[in-house]
Amino acid sequence: MKVPAFKHTIMRISAALEDESQHLQAISSLVKYDPGLFLSLLLNCPATHGDSNVTTGCQAASLMGSNAIKSLIAEHQHRVEDADTLILWHTATLTGEAAMRINERAPVAEPEEVFFAATLPYAGMLLMLEARQDYQKLIPMLVKLSIEDRVYLEDRIFNINHISILDGATQLPLKYRDVLRLIKMERFPSTLRMLQADSISRYSMAYEASQLYRLSLSAENMAQAIFFPFIVLAEENFKRINKRFFKISENEAEELLTDIIGSYEVVCLDFGLEKAAAELINEAIQFTVPESKFLTVSAPLLRVLNKLFAERHVEKNIVISGEAGVGKRLLAKALHYHPENPRRIKPFLSFHCDTMERETLEEELLGAKGGYWGHGQHKGAFDIADGGTIMLKDIHKMPLPLQERLADIISKIDYYRSRKIPSQNPDVLFIATSRPNLEEEAKQGRFSKMLLRALKPVSINLPPLRERRDDIGLIADGIIKKYKLPLQETSILLGLQELYDSDTFTENLSDLKRVLFYTAAKQMLKS
User: Distances in Å between the alpha carbon of 141 and those of 492, 503, 521?
Assistant: First the structure.
């Protein structure tokens, strides 16, 4: 299986191989920074030595020796160095460094194993580049997308995708093949999942492979959040995954980002790419968060929103319900930062309810004082957001016993706030989001009536995009500007308008994004 490698990593590794003072293990540790070369090393080791359990570059190098590595490097005739493909190297390196930093705090596997597991998709993208050279034009856009969206685009345009082509490498060690199976099972669009993951058993995966998969998913989102801060969902995802599976709080996640950027910059310096790294980081730093607005031209929805924005509702908790991808999070932020909301200058904190656990609920919300020496002392979500708003995201996913404990906490806060009694309890208002209607869920016994009474919320249901088609063009314009998609020609916009008027948009924003990415990809391949 031929796979491209990066010219700058080949040169750096080749120079190290010629330096007699360099140990073989130190040289082999450089290989992980080239997903294509690392893949070739793992695939060639079983063929050369018959050992299919080799999972790291150090193991492979020890078995193969320096001369075999030199020969392997010589076989890589396709060496990429163009600017479009180099963004893939930077994103892969940042993702791998993120995976290793998470692994330091919550050990899952060997550092090289977590690095390669996290960068596996990028090895698949290099294989796609070998199969279709015009794939290169799409790489700057594809690295900004989730695996699901990449797979969707690749299948529609090339009739093959970077995960399936990688899955064809049958010599890949079982540990990494399990990660690929989990990607296919969990992340492929539903149509692909039916076709390609029907034989996969959820319970057949080893726990370590599951953790590797989750760690790689978190690392991917962390890299995107650093390089492309306009992808708000990426930041939310890595915080949620880290908290749920690796017990890394949102405060710790912020510190983690700083560590990741530092280690990434050190790697870039070693490979002579520090200037490009500085440009990428500086561009991300200069990004300014746009004003939080929920835009709509739907008259019925505007009437409901005007009621929500009215001053009498400012000091009330709010529940926003609706299908996935209809804009619940955006509306929550718009409500908090609305000019008439006196809390707008105070923090807005997003809290993922599906990550809550009985043992850590109070510590996460109320904080911890620490022991005699103060170890483990930290603020909880309520203290951090004091005077502001907490968005309780997907509140319907919180287990019932925790809902009732949360109801007790909220009732106490509300008691002191409404009576203006001095208290150590923080002054927080809540905006909860939910897919189902909470009142109906409470009637069916699937949601706590106690929590609903404690919140006493003003409720709004956001209609799906197919029921407010006049908004679709408005939302699409924002996506086009955000991702800098080449969709400004009048003929293209007219064609898109036809889709806005007719498509079912079953998955709302996800479907709209895919339509725009697909149209942009076709345009990029033409140009």
Answer: 18, 24, 8
